[in-house]
Amino acid sequence: MLTEIFNECETQMQGAIEHMQREFKTLRTGKVTTSVLDNVKIDYYGTPTPLDQVGSVIATDATTIVVNPWEKNLLGDVESAIQGANIGVNPNNDGDVIKLFFPPMTVEQRQESVKQMKGMGEKAKISIRNDRRDSNDKIKKLEKEKEITQDESKSAQENIQKITDKYITNVDSILKDKEAEILKV
């Protein structure tokens, strides 16, 4: 019974960390990645479709992304979708492909990215603490229903706290590494 609660708690906390890392992909770091276009959708025959499903999206170097739609009649739609996404650059349409030239990040932009990253980390920590609370509530319920003793309940809650501490430390470590990556010129 208690091991199920521990395992479920760990799974939930790991999910919070994975979600935070997926959110990090939308942040701009010194090197541009194609994930900045992940949220861009174009109207493909009446269906909002991710950009990478209507053409190839390639980062050719540290500051350039090339979008090559498989159907050339989509060039205008792709261009307007990128402009509407407000990613900080204007698309250059040469009639064949769309090129996005990202200027090098300024110190202020890097600090803003770090600020966003820390906000994402704080959301992950809140989620982890909520998972701890939910697990402790389940343990207290078992104690109240006399399925476990008071000592077992106390021991289980201490175990949940150790799991929580481990994941909070993990988040802090990931944030520290990501901050160094973003601030590196």
Structure characterization notes:
- This protein has 185 residues and is of the alpha+beta class.
- The chain folds into two domains: 2-26 and 106-183, Ribosome-recycling factor (Topoisomerase I, Chain A, domain 4, Orthogonal Bundle); 34-101, 2-Layer Sandwich (Gyrase A, domain 2), CATH 3.30.1360.
- The chain is 57% helix and 15% strand.
- Strands 3-4-6-5 form a four-stranded antiparallel β-sheet, covered by helices on one side. A two-stranded antiparallel ribbon has the order 1-2.
- Strand 1 (41-44) and strand 2 form a beta hairpin.
Task: Explain the layout of strands and helices.
Elements: H1 2-24, E1 41-44, E2 47-50, E3 55-61, E4 64-69, H2 75-85, E5 92-93, E6 98-101, H3 107-144, H4 150-183
Antiparallel strand pairs: 1-2, 3-4, 4-6, 5-6
Helix pairs in contact: 1-3, 1-4, 3-4
